[in-house]
Amino acid sequence: MWILFFVALLGASVDAATKTFNWEMSYVAASPNGVSRPVIGVNGQFPPPTIYVSKNDQVVIHCTNSLNDGEFITLHTHGIFQNGSNYYDGVDQVTQW
Amino acid sequence: MVEHFVNSTDGSGIPPGQSFEYNFSVGEQTGTYWIHSHVKGQYPNGLRAPFIVQDPDFPYHCDKEVVLSVSDWVFRCFSHLMIVQ
Lengths: 97, 85
Fold this sequence. Notes:
The complex is a heterodimer of chains A (97) and B (85). Chain A is mainly beta.
């Protein structure tokens, strides 16, 4: 019985980690279809990098707005429930001001 | 708690030149989502990326995984197509 109990505990343990991303947004030039135009890059890169995290991870995204057109930025994680963290949902004028 | 930077008539979100930290748990969710700006036409202008929450107990085997991101594209900044009030 004790062995079963410990095995169950191991199975229930969660390998949660904190994943940190540093994103600085600025305009860069890109021509994905052959025509150069300004686009928003992340750390000078377009397209922005894909974010990979795992179940139960704590996600930290440190954003810096380096746009030169005077606009604000938010980052909305579409589809993420944000249970208990609605203020990090990133929808301007709804969950972020 | 609501994150508040400036008077809402100036705009909302992260002001130019400033930083902000999003800090949240994805909990038990797994799957393919995306992250994008929610200000005006910024995400068609490029501020969008896949946001993938991997499941360590994924039940299916696959030989290769490919991420395909599909978007509208226009020749100039999307704001030219938006009606600005």
